[in-house]
Design brief:
The protein has 345 residues and is α/β, with parallel strands linked by helices. It has 13 helices and eight strands. Strands 1, 2, 3, 4, 5, 6, 7 and 8 form an eight-stranded mixed beta sheet that branches. The longest helix is centred in the C-terminal third of the chain and has 18 residues. The radius of gyration is 20 Å and the shape is globular.
């Protein structure tokens, strides 16, 4: 029988990985909780994500892992799928590699190949992309959590792959190369909020994955960057505020982390990624310790298919003003799951 942890034992691990299509720009920040305090280490390269998760799970305590990439599908697209929810959809992608091929033109866009565009083309629009996917308008490309709120502008649609703000390429890299094959192989991964609240999912031997936006986390922490996060001097200027945020959350930085914060996380191009991994980690710690609520809209599409951003409490402007979030067809809850093949999950 496993004895309850004493104050000096690690009782939980929180980690946040800042994602990119370039493995050199994937950095993870990790903190371990002992008693009522956390000890955070300096960011390090993610490396093989499956090996990272396996190594953290081997410590024998609950693991919460934030990811800076989309975990979910827009409801209009999900309504066309036969699976019961996002997790089962993701697991099945290991058998459909063409799903991840980015279409160069609208002629090859379809629900079976939704990512677009491969490069900039004159006259391309998100409306034409949406219609190629069987959606009525450009808003149908977005999940509820992608839409603008009173606190931040809109995020990019899941399947859009062009521009500095796009997240489609990160989704491809993580879903295709890690999450889909891991689920197909039986990896012990749980997905917030699709499978429940954060606290109820935490258990030794399982990694609980949650979508976290570093920019959203930075606002939640009350940190202002006096310039671009790509600018080392702007990152360095925000260092004292970041250390104060850690103190408020009972997060004690290692000496290496404190030095990295005050140094602006280095002069190389990955400095912004190290900073983002720290923002995401502190957001995760805040929700785990109750400094921010584990909020998810009471919307069955969100809870089964679209997902949500951890720590976000602001609803989209339209929804907050009383208008219902867009739904496929005439709206309403997701259809009942279709029967699964024998032996399926």
């Amino acid at each position: 029988m496993r004895l309850p942890p004493v104050d000096d034992d690690v009782s939980m691990i929180a980690a946040h990985a800042d994602w990119s299509t370039d493995p050199r720009k994937r950095w993870v920040s990790i903190a371990r909780r002992r008693g009522g305090r956390w000890r955070a280490e300096a960011p390090r390269p993610v490396g093989d994500p499956a090996a990272l998760v396996a190594g953290l799970l081997a410590e024998g305590v609950p693991l919460a892992l934030g990811l800076d990439l989309p975990l979910g599908l827009p409801r209009g697209f999900a309504a066309q799928r036969p699976e019961r929810d996002f997790r089962h959809f993701l697991r099945g992608l290991s058998a459909t590699p063409d799903f991840f091929v980015v279409s160069p033109t609208l002629e090859t866009v379809s629900p079976a190949r939704p990512f677009y565009p491969a490069r900039g083309l004159k006259g391309m629009t998100r409306l034409s992309h949406a219609r190629a996917l069987g959606l009525p308008d450009a808003a149908g490309l977005c999940r509820l959590c992608d839409m603008a709120t009173a606190e931040r502008p809109a995020g990019a649609p899941v399947f859009w792959t062009l521009g500095a703000n796009q997240s489609g390429k990160a989704a491809i890299a993580a879903w295709r190369d890690w999450l889909a094959p891991a689920l197909a192989a039986g990896a012990r991964l749980r997905f917030w909020p699709f499978e429940g609240g954060l606290a109820e999912l935490l258990e030794p031997g399982h990694a609980v994955l949650a979508e976290v936006y570093p920019a959203e986390a930075m606002r939640q922490l009350g940190i202002l960057l006096p310039g671009s996060k790509r600018d080392r001097e702007a990152r360095r200027a925000a260092g004292p505020s970041l250390l104060l945020a850690m103190a408020r959350l009972a997060v004690r930085p290692s000496r290496a982390l404190e030095q990295a914060v005050l140094d602006g996380f280095g002069a190389d191009a990955a400095g912004e990624d190290r900073l983002d991994s720290m923002f995401g980690l502190l957001c995760l710690v805040g929700v785990l310790d109750g400094a921010r609520p584990d909020f998810v809209p009471d919307d069955p599409w969100v809870r089964r298919w679209e997902g949500w951003v951890l720590g976000q409490t602001a609803l989209p402007v339209a929804a907050a003003g009383g208008s219902a979030a867009p739904g496929p067809g005439e709206g309403g809850p997701p259809p009942a799951p279709r029967p699964q093949p024998a032996g399926g999950a």
